[in-house]
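Structure in, sequence out. Go:
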């Protein structure tokens, strides 16, 4: 398959360059492959200057194929937890602006870790998720990406994890935000079970909230959730392929989110190299995810539509490391520090690959920093829907020019998490941060600690330069504060000081 796809990519590129001026292809297909909790190095594709031990451990041949066909983004970012990333994807808004700053599930309710917190009273964030109406409390009113694409003639398919709105709210069902087809998406952000023999959790009446819906025909079968989703995707793709309609496939896998479970198709090799139990399960889930990617790529190739299809691969946050894993906690994303839930690089830097047969570039790697907010305007540019109207003001900046090797200004990237995740570990808490160029500034709300890192020299964030480079620290504190104020960002209330947490530029170091 790898040889076929590489040859096809060369041929497709040649044909495109020879006919691009005629603009024969007006509406490319879009496949957005979103993985849950996949770490930056949880793949045999390296996104760093050096190969790591994790690149040598995991087996992701189809990611390798996609990377060889397309372009790797080595400085790609999401938010530290899942729902904020997914809302940013659907709206083009930064989490500080859309205020779905933590993961959603229960309606009209903050997260358990936020209730009765000893230090903070957390803001009344948008825990009910996305809304297409402006009258629903604690939601972000926005025009969703799939609705725009549908309105522009796209057949829209959602498969897998949705996690866009609380239980009972319209956005918990992808059909209500512009998808024509919804395969197994609902309010919950994880499955009760990945196993068909467990009916994907539908046997457990106590935890029905997590049970995966809509896959009844696979109940009782020895099939992993990822395989069932892949089979459903292949079936649903036939309609737009046969009718030659442009399509948007949002394949949003539940993998590799906990609960960690073995995919028996891929488990033996990891047992044979001496991994511990949970790591065997995790590695098999990584390979299971990759196999699903390969299934889709092969189908697009076999049906002769890959030549008119843009494929984007992304993870919704950094790799899990604080819980559920064996080995040293907060070390599963080395050389990055910490993991999911953290503002350190292990919690927010993620693997990203873009394959587009329509952009003239010989580069295989892009180091320009991009963030999940950027996907909305990029996909609209890919699909020539730039002029579409939407109600929200977006933060994202299209990364499409980068695929043409054009110079793009390095805008600041912002993170804002005025919430509490639950697990403890380095960089996990309540915080705001900004990256501008090689510099990253972090402001922890609970401790009032500030940190500055030069990521080009210190990717592991071991050397805090806050006292060495006060001028750069103050500059970034000002940039961060100006942005947070401009979007009316929420801040926690400190019960100890009886006051709202100060803005970053109000830190004593700068005053």
């Amino acid at each position: 398959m790898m040889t076929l796809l590489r040859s096809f990519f060369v041929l497709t590129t040649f044909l495109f360059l020879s006919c691009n001026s005629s603009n024969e292809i007006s509406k490319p297909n879009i496949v957005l492959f979103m993985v849950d909790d996949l770490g930056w190095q949880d793949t045999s594709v390296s996104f760093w200057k050096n190969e790591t031990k994790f690149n040598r451990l995991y087996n992701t041949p189809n990611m390798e194929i996609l990377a060889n066909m397309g372009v790797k983004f080595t400085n790609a970012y999401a938010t530290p937890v899942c729902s904020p990333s997914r809302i940013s994807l659907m709206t083009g808004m930064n989490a500080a602006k859309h205020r779905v700053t933590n993961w959603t599930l229960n309606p009209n309710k903050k997260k358990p870790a936020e209730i009765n917190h000893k230090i903070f009273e957390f803001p009344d964030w948008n825990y009910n998720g996305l809304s297409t109406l402006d009258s629903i409390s604690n939601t972000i009113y926005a025009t969703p990406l799939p609705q725009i694409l549908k309105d522009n003639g796209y057949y829209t398919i959602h498969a897998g994890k949705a996690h866009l709105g609380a239980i009972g709210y319209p956005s918990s069902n992808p059909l209500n935000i512009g998808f024509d087809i919804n395969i197994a998406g609902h309010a919950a952000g994880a499955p009760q079970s990945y196993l068909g023999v467990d009916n994907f959790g539908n046997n457990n009446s106590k935890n029905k909230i997590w049970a995966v819906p809509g896959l009844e025909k696979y109940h009782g079968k020895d099939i992993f959730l990822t395989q069932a989703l892949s089979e459903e995707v292949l079936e649903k793709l036939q309609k737009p392929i046969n009718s030659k309609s442009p399509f948007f496939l949002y394949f949003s896998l539940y993998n590799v989110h906990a609960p960690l479970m073995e995919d028996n198709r891929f488990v033996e090799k990891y047992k044979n190299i001496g991994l511990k139990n949970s790591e065997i399960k995790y590695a098999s889930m990584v390979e299971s995810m990759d196999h699903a990617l390969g299934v889709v790529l092969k189908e697009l190739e076999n049906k002769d539509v890959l030549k008119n299809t843009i494929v984007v691969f992304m993870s919704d946050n950094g790799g899990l490391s604080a819980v559920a894993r064996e080995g040293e906690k907060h070390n599963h994303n080395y050389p990055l520090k910490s993991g999911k839930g953290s503002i350190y690089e292990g919690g927010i830097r993620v693997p990203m690959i873009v394959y587009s047969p329509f952009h003239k570039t010989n580069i295989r790697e892009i180091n320009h920093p991009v963030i999940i907010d950027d996907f909305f305007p990029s996909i609209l540019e890919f699909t020539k829907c730039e002029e579409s109207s939407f109600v929200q003001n977006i933060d994202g900046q299209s990364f499409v020019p980068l695929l043409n090797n054009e110079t793009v200004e390095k805008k600041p990237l912002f993170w804002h998490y005025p919430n509490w995740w639950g697990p403890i570990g380095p960089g996990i808490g309540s915080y705001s941060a900004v990256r501008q160029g090689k510099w990253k500034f972090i402001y922890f709300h609970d401790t009032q600690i500030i940190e500055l890192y030069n990521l080009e020299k210190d990717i592991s964030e071991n050397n805090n330069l806050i006292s060495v480079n006060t001028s750069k620290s103050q500059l970034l504190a000002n940039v961060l504060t100006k942005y947070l104020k401009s979007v009316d960002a929420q801040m926690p209330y400190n019960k100890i000081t009886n006051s709202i947490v100060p803005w970053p530029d109000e830190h004593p170091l700068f005053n």
